[in-house]
Amino acid sequence: MTTNPSPIARRFAPFGTTIFSEMTALANTHKAVNLSQGFPDFDGPNIGKDAAIAAINNAHNQYAPMPGVPALRQAIARWASRINKIDVDPDTQITVTSGCTQAIAATMLGLLNPGDEVIIFEPYYDSYRACLAMADAKAVFVTLHPTQNGFAYDPKELQAAFTNKTKAILVNTPHNPTGTVFTTAQLQEIASLCIKNDAIAISDEVYECLVYPGHSHQSIATIPGMKERTIILSSSGKTFSLTGWKVGWAIAPAHLTAGIRAAHQFLTFSVSTPLQFGVAALLDNGEEEIDKLLKHYTHTRSLLGEALDELGFKASLPQGSYFIMADHTQVTQRLGLKTDVDLCRWLPENAGVAAIPPSAFYSDPVKGANFVRFAFCKKTETIDHAISRLRNAL
Ligand code: GLN
After folding, report:
1. Which residue spans within 135-226 are E strands per DSSP?
2. Exposed site from 31, 197, 261, 331, fewest CB < 10 Å?
3. pLDDT higher than threshold 90 for residue 59
4. What is the pLDDT of residues 262-319, one digit of tens each?
5. Across 205-232, average pLDDT
6. Where in the chain is the domain with CATH 3.40.640.10?
7. For domain 19-44+288-393, which architecture applies?
8. Which atom in ligand 1 lies closest to the alpha carbon of residue 176?
9. Which atom of ligand 1 is nearest to the CA of 101?
């Protein structure tokens, strides 16, 4: 008897189905409150929707130029100057992508050669590793360890991760899933290692506007010597609660943009034209919407944080992003369970709440086994509902 080998290419074998699809499916099966995959359960602002609808009605329905519609690239340049604090040329330094996830793919495929090493902090957003595998590059991991207030890397471990094969380091601040906002001192330390080792920084800043009182976001591109070696990746999904629009961008010096575009033109060629007009309107006129959103998330963050604390989860409130990463050891022991995966399988069925097991975000799953990630990018009533279900079940 012959066994059919899997038709899936070997490079994807280690990754299986993404944890986000798996947990959202489990939440749907059990009609659980879905605090797993990070997407809002409310709609994005009218400013963006109206502009996108107007674009559709005004015949902006054919292919956009490969790097993005000029109006959006100009709006991104103004945004970069306000939010990321760097001045860029919209023609040669900005590429519009299908969400930040495709910007990550275009960056890795367009700039890495087989065998190049890329340092990534773990826990990491799962697509980083899969894209490195697609590019035949090697991931080198530096762990963010839990500390008294949040998560941080060990400078010695960071230094040791750089070798003569290091091509890039991926910095994600505010960080998913830990909510860490990197400090200026940390960015300076990373920058000096990049400069010393002639490495580039791939800076995923999708949560750039979701930073809570007492903290502020800084792009590593603003550290002296870094603008020429930094690629900023971001999107409209988190900032404007439009995760389904999948409009993101890559900002990079012209020589690096050339590599990103070399891949982007063959991955998607271009991105949905009318939605690009919608995002342009939001970037220029969405400030009040961002303020409102941030107030709301500040509220749901403390609601959920306090409830988790009271239930025996150990977590410090995230400095940024819309996730709480908590240590679940006390809770799982009480339930007779062990790992994050046990807990995240148990929760939807028995408590009616879904969460993410962060072991999926570590090179060695054991390192994430004591944590659980909850998303609080939901209506207040949804968070209340989740809390009362957790209280009943735990
Ligand atoms: N970034 C989102 C999260 O961490 C989800 C992205 C995705 O579904 N691929 O929840």
Report:
1. 138-143, 145-147, 150-152, 166-172, 200-204
2. 31
3. yes
4. 999 999 999 999 999 999 999 999 999 999 999 999 999 999 999 999 999 998 899 9
5. 98
6. 46-285
7. Alpha-Beta Complex (3.90)
8. 4
9. 9
